[in-house]
Amino acid sequence: MNFTPSTSRTSETLYLSAPAVVELVRRQGLRACLQGIADNIQADFLRWADFDKTARVASHSRQGVIELMPIADEVTYSFKYVNGHPGNTRLGLSTVMAFGVLADVTTGMPLLLSELTLTTALRTAAMSAVAARALARPGSRSMALIGNGAQSEFQALAFHHLLGITELRLFDTDGEATRKLLANLSDLPVTVRVCTSVAEAVRGADIVTTVTADKAKATIITPNMVEPGMHINAVGGDCPGKTELHPDVLRGAAVFVEYAPQTRVEGDIQQMPSDFAVTEVWEVLSQRQAGRASATQVTVFDSVGFALEDFSALRYMRDTALALGMGERMALIPALDDPKDLFSLLRQPTLASRVQHLPEMAEA
């Protein structure tokens, strides 16, 4: 469904704070939110040609990266501000923090300002599920989850609710992260096995999801771990100098990406030649290209996160907030009686000055 903003003249922007989004997800239900965002992603990827697309704009430092992710169709513009700082947990901060905007293309008016930290986790997991539905073997029931940090619960829940995964095989070098994940999934009706190595976790798995956070050229999955028919959902390699897969894993698989110009710089395929063959997921979803060729073929979704997914998630959050009567109306943009007279804002008396001129009234 194409998002249609209000055509009424207004200078108010809907604001969804972090607490408001938490309450929205609780009221709507986590499963419904994952399904709704996945449905939006599927619908928007099928409109691929309608969007003005660009790779994200990134500012890198030794500590991490700060990025802007813009995209627009003829009706709606959106962007996300997001960081990636693996060392933030030592400071009591999230590794990923984000907010985003939806705006009316016709006027440029911001329609929504929303948190996107929690929402990014939801949309990343939803995107993983959308890709896996198209690429994994039908009837996949077992998933290895390598990296048990902040994204892991959302991946587990999305694959359980949207693909029917019933067995999770967990591994993380940080035992506390795994214990945290176990506690958070205690009510999920799945079989959970804690493993002592990556190799043990991936052995016999239908799907392997990697969500590691270290900003390093790592080789979490090596060729000897890969079994015929596996689908590898590589999520953690998402910026220059950060990988999770050995190059030979990529050479031996059919590789799928969100937006090739961005993934060649940021994804696991940054290790490969510039002409290394990949297929964009929208082509599979629209049936322009084949996905899995056989039950024994190995498929890789080299996921880095693309602005269209945030566009889809922001649409879902705004539509759901309006349906539930949630969010605040804020004056992010000044309201002017004469749009050509911006300076008039400074001539208007402030509340303090009006109060100073009322002593006679107070005495009376």
From TrEMBL:
InterPro entries: NAD(P)-bd_dom_sf (IPR036291), ODC_Mu_crystall (IPR003462), ODC_N (IPR023401)
Superkingdom of source: Bacteria
GO MF, one annotated term: ornithine cyclodeaminase activity
Keywords associated with the record: Lyase
Gene3D superfamilies: NAD(P)-binding Rossmann-like Domain, ornithine cyclodeaminase, domain 1
One protein family per Pfam: OCD_Mu_crystall
EC number(s) reported in the record: 4.3.1.12
EC class (word): lyase
Coiled-coil segments on the chain, per record: none
Protein name: Ornithine cyclodeaminase
Organism: Acidovorax temperans
Lineage, opening ranks: Bacteria, Pseudomonadati, Pseudomonadota, Betaproteobacteria, Burkholderiales
